[in-house]
């Protein structure tokens, strides 16, 4: 998988040589992570992005990438027999990554100022920090940093899909990211909260 991602990256950046235009901007949005068998987790994404277009026409092929601080995670219920808190409690895990997607897509013009776009490609991510906490149970083994304390793998990779609308300098779209590995390691590995993340994203292209 890593070899294919490397070859894909080399191919895409070699195509940049023929790009007609480079645009860059800022982006931010809302994440909803929903690993299988876990409850939804709401997070965010924020960062910078760039686009290479291979034509100055309204309909064109393009290559885009971004550098994003993105928040993912999950929620689930755990059973407790504490005398004062018998029943279930919320177990929440927050994971913050620096994510780098590399997407190839196509833009199609609707009017002079409006275009629809769709793209797909792989992403890689590096875990920065995060926390695991069981609510209202003081004796629970909370983890202050899931990456450095041995609960989560530091690096993640997967695929992303995106569809959106461009209007002048603005871009509004939705994306779906699917991790291709179980992020848990060590004694936690029986769990499999593999990330499946829906995102709503708004971007502003500065130099268009």
3D structure, described in words:
The protein has 208 residues and is mainly beta. It contains one helix and eight strands. The chain has one helix spanning 2-15, and strands at 21-33, 41-53, 60-80, 87-109, 114-134, 155-167, 170-179, 196-205. An eight-stranded antiparallel barrel has the order 1-2-3-4-5-6-7-8. Strand 2 and strand 3 (60-80) form a beta hairpin. The longest helix is centred in the first third of the chain and has 14 residues, at 2-15. The two termini are 35 Å apart. Mean pLDDT is 84; it is low at 14-19.
Keywords:
208 residues; 8 strands; mainly beta; 60% strand
What is the overall number of helices? 1
Distance between the termini: 35 Å
Global structural class:
mainly beta
Spans with pLDDT under 50 lasting ≥5 residues?
A: 14-19
Amount of beta strand: over 45%
Overall pLDDT, averaged?
Answer: 84
Report strand order across the widest sheet. Answer: 1-2-3-4-5-6-7-8
Write the H/E string, N to C: HEEEEEEEE
Gyration radius, rounded: 20 Å
Q: Count of DSSP E strands? A: 8
Largest sheet descriptor: 8 strands, antiparallel, barrel
3D shape: elongated
Helix content: under 10%
Task: Give a brief rundown of this model.
With 208 residues, this protein is mostly beta strands. The protein has one helix at 2-15, and strands spanning 21-33, 41-53, 60-80, 87-109, 114-134, 155-167, 170-179, 196-205. An 8-stranded antiparallel barrel has the order 1-2-3-4-5-6-7-8.
Strand-helix topology:
Layout: H1 2-15, E1 21-33, E2 41-53, E3 60-80, E4 87-109, E5 114-134, E6 155-167, E7 170-179, E8 196-205
Antiparallel strand pairs: 1-2, 1-8, 2-3, 3-4, 4-5, 5-6, 6-7, 7-8
